[in-house]
Design a protein that fits this description.
alpha/beta
């Protein structure tokens, strides 16, 4: 069943890519490779063909086995940057598509280094376009992009979508949202909260997979050993300190109907941190999901194939209206901030 689903996703993504190639022929597209930690990563580069490119925006994917185009989700977002005069650069995550490696073996530090390597590749191979470098991050990239900005003078600006702050806090928010959506009784939510507190202590004690199976397999469907290893490497991630002192222009976009991330907490924390600073825009998008799709038409239960088919058919109309409007306006003013 999983293989069939992946095949359908690949078919839909191919159809979207072919249609885009026909309708958007005024762009230069390339499929280069770059190497990180001995892994060969299959990338994608797209730029306006008029040689007036302002810079390159490097896309940083969220969690999961995500290909360079996120199965078509990125395509309308790329177009916003292309229309504003920017090239875009993305890649299949390790072990996805034509990339070697395994994304489940990565820590957030590994992911930061991978993005840094991608930026170095872009600067070497696209010198004419890489006048400035921006990051466009999604979800889990909130533990990647801000930290990289702290430690890299190569990053000139950042746009983030659906960023969380604390990994364990996000885990509880996700569980709580699911239980509330299912209409769980207060006692059930309280028991789940107690179990979550046990899990927090569990992760702080640097457990192994056998410990996990022994303690939690009777309470939930066990995760794989590979997924356990990935979580163990990253579960204590907290991005709050990564934002302190950042001076580059940034815009963080959050959906007001995000069922995966507590966007209210992210908004309040970052709004307070950058209250008097004009270089940071923290914006809550109305009627928007975690990925800034239209709510209630889409939510966390919407089948992935349905989402991709609608993106292929309707393009930017499946995204919350405030998303592209905010992004386009911010990009229009970015030249004055750089």
């Amino acid at each position: 069943m999983l293989q069939i689903r992946r095949s359908v996703l690949m078919l839909i993504a191919t159809w979207i890519a072919c249609w885009s190639h026909v309708t958007l022929a005024q762009y230069v597209e390339q499929r280069p490779y770059f190497t990180h930690q001995s892994h060969r990563l299959s990338a994608y580069f797209k730029a306006p063909s008029d040689n007036k490119v302002k810079g390159v925006v490097v896309f940083v994917s969220g969690d999961g086995a995500i290909p360079y185009d996120a199965h078509g989700y990125y395509e309308p977002i790329w177009q916003v940057f292309l229309d504003a005069g920017y090239a875009v650069f993305s890649w299949d995550k390790p072990g996805v598509g034509k990339s070697s490696g395994n994304w489940l073996e990565q820590s957030m530090s590994d992911r930061q280094d991978e993005v840094r390597t991608a930026i170095e590749f872009v600067k070497r191979h696209y010198t004419g376009q890489a006048k400035t470098i921006g990051l466009m991050g999604f979800s889990q990239a909130g533990w990647v992009a801000p930290a990289l900005m702290q430690n890299s003078s190569d990053v000139n600006f950042m746009v983030g979508v659906g960023y969380a702050i604390n990994w364990l806090d996000q885990s509880w928010y996700l569980t709580q949202s699911r239980l509330q959506r299912e209409g769980a009784a207060a006692q059930v939510i309280a028991r789940s909260k107690n179990m979550h507190q046990q899990e927090r202590s569990f992760w702080h004690n640097k457990p192994n997979y056998e410990d996990y199976v022994r303690l939690f397999s009777n309470q939930e469907k066990p995760i794989s050993k590979a997924r356990f290893g990935f979580i163990k490497k990253n579960v204590l991630s907290d991005a709050e300190q990564d934002y302190i002192g950042l001076h580059q222009p940034m815009m963080i976009l959050l959906g007001d109907n995000d069922e995966q991330v507590d966007t209210t907490r992210t908004f309040k924390l970052l709004h307070a941190l950058y209250r008097e600073q004009s270089h940071a825009t923290i914006k809550m998008i109305p009627n928007a999901t975690h990925g800034l799709l239209n709510h209630p038409e889409f939510n966390s239960q919407t089948n992935d194939i349905v989402v991709l088919v609608k993106i292929g058919l309707f393009g930017e109309r499946v995204y919350a209206p405030g998303f592209f409007e905010a992004l386009s306006h911010w990009l229009d003013t970015l030249d004055t901030q750089l």
